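Margin note from the TA: students keep mixing up input and output lines. Inputs are the sequences; the output is the structure of the whole complex. Example:
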Amino acid sequence: MSGATDHSPETESPRQRFELDDRGFNEVPTKYRRYYRHWQGAGDQLEPNEVICPVCKVVIRSTREIRVGDRLYCMACMTRLRIREDSEGHLEADCEY
Amino acid sequence: MKQSEGLANGEGELHDLDPRKFYEQVHSFEFWFQSVEGYLSGTVYGRRPQTVETPLAVAERERLITVLCNYCVGETAALEGASGLIAIAPNRPTQVFLSTQVVDEGRHLEVLLHRIAALGIADPEAEVDRRASSTIREFRRRLLQLVASKDWEAALFAQNVILEAMEFTVFQSHARTADPVTAEVLEGIVKDERRHIGFGENELGRRLRESPHRRSRLIEVKRDLDALVLETFEEILREIGMAPDERPELGRSYLAAVERLGFGQ
């Protein structure tokens, strides 16, 4: 996965861009596999373009840095998510039914 | 060029998909087929032919057979429940998704019965009848009652939130300590369960958002079934040899789901 910077058209500051590689996640159709990976447990770390699905616990990946208010999809459990900041400043995903 | 074609070519961003297109796609048989192909292709009865059996001690084998018998009752309940839910599903995409779930549940039952046979049991179905616990049987009876009464939200909650969350967490945990063949069978089932728990939570979440008054009915069902679920959890975890201090962790997935749906207490 490689990072570059991209300037979004609106008022927000530039977002890092990421090229996604296939991490062996085989639970969704081939064309979507690079958007997901399994959490590797202790020692694993989320990148700025990654968040954990609260329902099924897979790591969801985006081609751009994730920010508060972003909407993401977990295809493994078919959930739509909205990003928020928790009390410690970490990004978390809430289900949007 | 369609958005999905762009994604296939490495262009575009999955997360920019229109929500309607997303749901239409993930509830389809086509999506199901391409998903399961990724992890079931090359397996036979849920295991790769090259995975080697490890010898089990007699007591260990006995405990495993009993646990698998209980899993079979859970999967039978899910198979019968999902089949019945198709008839009362509110729309076509939901019916189509449930038809994929029926196929998954039928496969789960088949691979588990096959595993029991591979462990030396000549008549696995008779063994299930002989060994399965009364609590999981009672859960099955109550679930099928809810389906028969055409209570869509309550039946879906019992099946795709309570039962599936329990299976999801127990199978994941069991796979970590099981022999390699059983672990592989369980891991394949867990991958299917992700879709089932997600479907249940999302469908109920949408229904509750549109009609908040339905929440009280689900609280009632939860109250009615909680004790059975916890007792079943305990029985299975005891059999697979999980230490008591690790057990509360396992209920977390179920509790987190009901919390997100707004009736955790």
